């Protein structure tokens, strides 16, 4: 029954998020954002293995999302009441950046993620952000807000990998990885929504594989990753790590290369430098993770030693990360 309720609330949140994409008014975008967040609360607080600490993460997440929503609504009302476009855009920019956890408003991300179950990490860290990023106005009428939003995205891209390198807990590592990819999603939105949708689809699928593998081993600390990660998933995990590290021709390299290419076409020097810097630090981080994951003793006999379903999932992960990169490159 508990699992059923988690699925029901998750589906309701997903429906509200999808409805956001068809709203022409920023007010209804705000309404659907909050409705989706409210439906997420029961999903995040439900645990198949109850823990006393769940409330800390969910409460932090809910308070931050509520405060961000208040700022967005305040900006909308301000624009309606006195047509103060500058202050209205500033409040909405702050509210959306807070809800997305962009640098320097990322303080809540790791504090919440360490108490979430892995399903909640995937939804909050990947799934929900996709819909919010796609619906954020780019504040083209107020250049100061547009630049602030842009530089917060650039800061997220660079800061995320640095914080990942210092993460002790696996869930904190995933939190800062989410900050990094949020930056890339926002930068992609400046080049068109088709980039956001393509990048987010690839990111969500890759994160689904990664989160499921970490959940299967109940992985808690980075230093124990090699012993906690199931052996029959290690080959797939290596492919994910090599993809996120940016090795060609893996999938994540191809997505970031497309954004880099678009930045070059637009002569956006700051974006190019940020992408290259983020990618270099990210490469070092994931090579470190690969070393930890492969240097310790395995929990299971090894490759293809799991059940049929586990082996299929592992092979699907390998195919997705290794061969889909070539397909994505041909599309762009």
TrEMBL record:
GO terms for biological process: mitochondrial electron transport, NADH to ubiquinone. It is found in: Mitochondrion inner membrane. It comes from Magallana gigas. It holds the Pfam family Proton_antipo_M. The keyword Oxidoreductase does not apply. It catalyses: a ubiquinone + NADH + 5 H(+)(in) = a ubiquinol + NAD(+) + 4 H(+)(out). The keyword Translocase applies. This is NADH-ubiquinone oxidoreductase chain 2. It comes from the Eukaryota. It is an enzyme of class 7 (translocase). Belongs to the complex I subunit 2 family. Residues 87-281 form the NADH:quinone oxidoreductase/Mrp antiporter transmembrane domain. Its EC number is 7.1.1.2. The chain crosses the membrane at residues 58-82, 88-109, 121-140, 146-170, 182-215, 235-258, 270-292, 312-331. InterPro entries: Complex_I_Subunit_2 (IPR050175), ND/Mrp_TM (IPR001750). PANTHER family: NADH-UBIQUINONE OXIDOREDUCTASE CHAIN 2. GO terms for molecular function: NADH dehydrogenase (ubiquinone) activity. It is a multi-pass membrane protein. Keywords: Electron transport, Membrane, Mitochondrion, Mitochondrion inner membrane, NAD, Respiratory chain, Translocase, Transmembrane, Transmembrane helix, Transport, Ubiquinone. One of its GO terms (cellular component) is mitochondrial inner membrane.
């Amino acid at each position: 029954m508990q699992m059923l309720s988690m699925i029901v609330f998750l589906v309701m949140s997903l429906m509200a998020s999808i409805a956001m994409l068809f709203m022409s008014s920023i007010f209804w975008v705000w309404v659907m954002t909050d409705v989706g967040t409210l439906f997420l609360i029961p999903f995040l607080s439900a645990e198949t293995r109850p823990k006393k600490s769940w409330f800390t993460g969910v409460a932090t997440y809910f308070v931050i999302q509520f405060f961000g929503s208040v700022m967005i609504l305040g900006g909308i009302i301000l624009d309606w009441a006195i047509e103060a476009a500058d202050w209205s855009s500033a409040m909405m920019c702050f509210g959306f950046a807070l809800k997305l956890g962009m640098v320097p408003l990322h303080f809540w991300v790791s504090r919440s993620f360490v108490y979430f179950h892995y399903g909640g990490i995937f939804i909050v860290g990947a799934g929900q952000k996709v819909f919010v990023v796609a619906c954020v106005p780019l504040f083209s009428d107020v250049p100061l807000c547009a630049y602030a939003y842009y530089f917060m995205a650039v800061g997220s891209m660079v800061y995320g990998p640095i914080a990942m390198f210092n993460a002790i807990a696996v869930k904190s590592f995933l939190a800062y990885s989410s900050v990094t990819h949020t930056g890339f999603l926002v930068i992609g939105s400046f080049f068109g929504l088709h980039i956001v949708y393509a990048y987010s689809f690839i990111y969500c699928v890759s994160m689904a594989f990664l989160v499921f593998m970490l959940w299967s081993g109940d992985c808690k600390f980075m230093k124990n990753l090699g012993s906690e990660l199931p052996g029959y998933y290690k080959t797939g995990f290596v492919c994910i790590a090599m993809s996120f590290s940016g090795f060609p021709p893996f999938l994540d390299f191809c997505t970031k290369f497309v954004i880099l290419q678009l930045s070059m076409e637009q002569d956006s020097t700051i974006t190019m430098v940020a992408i290259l810097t983020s990618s270099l630090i990210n490469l070092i981080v994931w090579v470190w993770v690969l070393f930890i994951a492969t240097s310790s003793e395995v929990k299971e006999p090894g490759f293809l030693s799991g059940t049929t379903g586990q082996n299929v999932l592992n092979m699907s992960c390998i195919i997705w990360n290794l061969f889909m990169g070539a397909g994505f490159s041909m599309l762009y």
